[in-house]
Design a protein that fits this description.
Pfam families: Ribul_P_3_epim
CATH topology: TIM Barrel
Pathway: Carbohydrate degradation
Shape: globular
Bound molecules: 5-O-phosphono-D-xylulose, fe (ii) ion
Helix content: 25-40%
Number of domains: 1
CATH architecture: Alpha-Beta Barrel
Keywords: Calvin cycle, Carbohydrate metabolism, Cobalt, Isomerase, Manganese, Metal-binding, Zinc
Mean pLDDT: 98
Largest sheet: 8 strands, parallel
Radius of gyration: 16 Å
GO molecular function, one term: D-ribulose-phosphate 3-epimerase activity
Distance between the termini: 12 Å
Strand content: 15-25%
CATH superfamily: Aldolase class I
Catalytic activity: D-ribulose 5-phosphate = D-xylulose 5-phosphate
Structural class: alpha/beta
Length: 225
């Protein structure tokens, strides 16, 4: 099963609630929620208060991508705010296994995120505890960047590891996903596709159906796989 996860980083923050309702009504599956701290990454975005505010608007899963350092202190706040998935970068945690445990103890699904240059060996002793692996196909910090093709090799390697483990682990890709590359990304093994600028830059303002076309086009590409 393929899931489309619009990244609200590229949404119109002045109309965030409407953006979320409209994008889910257009057929998207998951809300991808990018948290940046101006420390681990050179940008500053949104926190648990915004997660709590959008939680009542949708039954869709909220997929919190933490780009913060340190990680642990903020995890319970996001769990209380209604996050379903919480993912973090291994470089930002001093104790990766502990952070995974903390996320799961809070009742959330746990994900580990790999930057373009982060080696996959961080999976070696924790894959069986993870619910999601997120491969970054851009360097974290900004929407609208170009897809880094090496991410395809990484996806293939992780897909093999997940299949060999026999566990059901989501494999998510994040960065530069568009209609012209989503099928190739799916063929490399991803099942969950974050798309920020591709979705939120499409369509005209104030049309509640403005995201229908782009979400359908992304799905049509996936149907070809
Ligand atoms: O985590 C990040 C960036 O750090 C992403 O989730 C971006 O928001 C994806 O945006 P596009 O590359 O799809 O525009
Ligand atoms: Fe993200």
């Amino acid at each position: 099963m393929y899931r489309i996860a619009p990244s609200i980083l590229s949404a119109n923050f002045a109309k965030l609630g409407q953006e979320i309702t409209d994008v889910i009504d257009s057929g998207a599956d998951i809300i991808h929620f990018d948290v940046m701290d101006n420390h681990y990454v050179p940008n500053l975005t949104i926190g648990p208060l915004v997660c709590e505010a959008i939680r009542p608007l949708t039954d869709a899963m909220i997929d919190v991508h933490l780009m913060v350092e340190p990680v642990d202190r903020i995890v319970p706040d996001f769990a209380k705010a209604g996050a379903n998935i919480i993912s973090f970068h291994p470089e930002a945690s001093s104790h990766i296994d502990r952070t995974i445990g903390l996320i799961k103890d809070q009742g959330c699904l746990a994900g580990l995120v790999f930057n373009p240059a982060t080696p996959l060996h961080y999976l070696d002793h924790v894959l069986d505890k993870l619910d999601l692996v997120l491969i970054m196909s851009v360097n974290p910090g900004f929407g609208g960047q170009k897809f880094i093709p090496e991410a395809l090799n990484k996806l293939k390697a992780v897909r093999q590891r997940i299949d060999e483990s026999g566990k059901s682990v989501m494999l998510e890709i994040d960065g530069g996903v568009k209609t012209d590359n989503i099928a190739e990304i799916a063929r490399a093994g991803a099942d969950t596709f974050v798309a920020g600028s591709a979705i939120f830059n499409a369509g005209k303002d104030n049309d509640p159906h403005r995201y229908d076309t782009i979400v359908s086009e992304l799905r049509a590409e996936l149907d070809k796989v």
